[in-house]
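We examine the record.
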Amino acid sequence: MVLKDNSKYSVTTDNLNDVLLLQNIANRNISELADEYDNSILIYPYSFKECEDKLGKQQLISLQATWNGNKCTKVNLETGNVAGFIGINGLSVSIHSRFSRNTDEDFFLHYMLQKVLNINVVSLQHGIKDEQVFDFLLYLFPKLLNDALAQGLYKEYQRNEYNDTNIRGVIDINRHIKRNMPFNGRIAYRTREFSHDNNVTELIRHTIEYICTTKFGRELMEINVETRSNVAQILAATTRYKRQDREKVIKNNLKIANHPFYIRYAPLQKLCLRILGHEKIKYGQNENKIHGILFDVSHLWEEYLATILTRQGFKHPDNRKGIGRIHLTNTNKFPRYLDFYREHDSIVIDAKYKAETEKRDDIHQIITYMYRLKGKYGILIHPTHKEHIVKKYHLLGYGENNDAELHTYLFKIPQDANNYNDFITKIRLSEELLIKHMET
């Protein structure tokens, strides 16, 4: 089953029974589903608390069924603001971007992920659903690895056993008698000490080794200097690594790390478990159990635009890190996070993952930001499956010479690409048009 995000469907055909299988995940918010099924669903961004639009409180799918006695005659479906893959009771569901018209492949979602996650591998497979799930898992690994190691190499207390002359722990009497009698000068003892070679880093090491056995794995592990450096740190730290210990390491990591100094390791740990057990994330057959990977497409759209606009001198505030916020009063109250702004020519930009500006709140919001920053131009950037177009509106009574403008910019998403490489070529033309618009 292929659906689009933020779309409505009315089903009255013979596959009603398949659609009704979605009742176990319908009409419930995403965070509730993830918690109930023990995080069988992997979501990006990976922390609901960090999502500005409260993604975790949104419903994955809304479903309303019409019954005539014991027979279902009609089902109305409505999808939310996520794309990706989900499977339940043998039914596979692909949720594509609504701005990608191809029913088999979602080139737009692939492209945004590769740009946002800084992956330039264009030859990854597209089209086989199970393999698409695995591709997306691989996409996320370098990003989450680098985020985690930015907090330092994970360390925790480990219990170790020694038998030597350099005693520095608690003597293990039974083991000492067994190994050192008659006395040979050594003492059997055990210690509890910090170590970088632990269950979490071993899991990451096993994941790296596994990824490197895949067709494009080694290329992913060397995608940039930061990734190469962090992979090297993990390899150097995990001196106890043994391939035959993989199942034991996975079992030891079923409890997700909850360390206040290493909070970014939890999503990496979850991802590693998904990759090492990727057969289980495919559309499973276990009754009422769901597996999948989902993406907040509004977040991806904004971060994709950031890969273009930050190179043009735009600042991109980050509400998750508390960077770049502005205040609407001199008491530092009412903090706000703009999507993008550039000071030297007074441009304020709002990224809108919707076909057009419909709500007046969108207009009021960007005019508020323009007023606060004395912006001369406010631009709302929307993706579109139609033609590129820019609509300009003069704001009355605003600007130094009443010349402030509000622009609605429609960014064309190619619909007629023959393959993924063709899509890249065509969408880069859209990127060039956006850059040119910011220069004029």
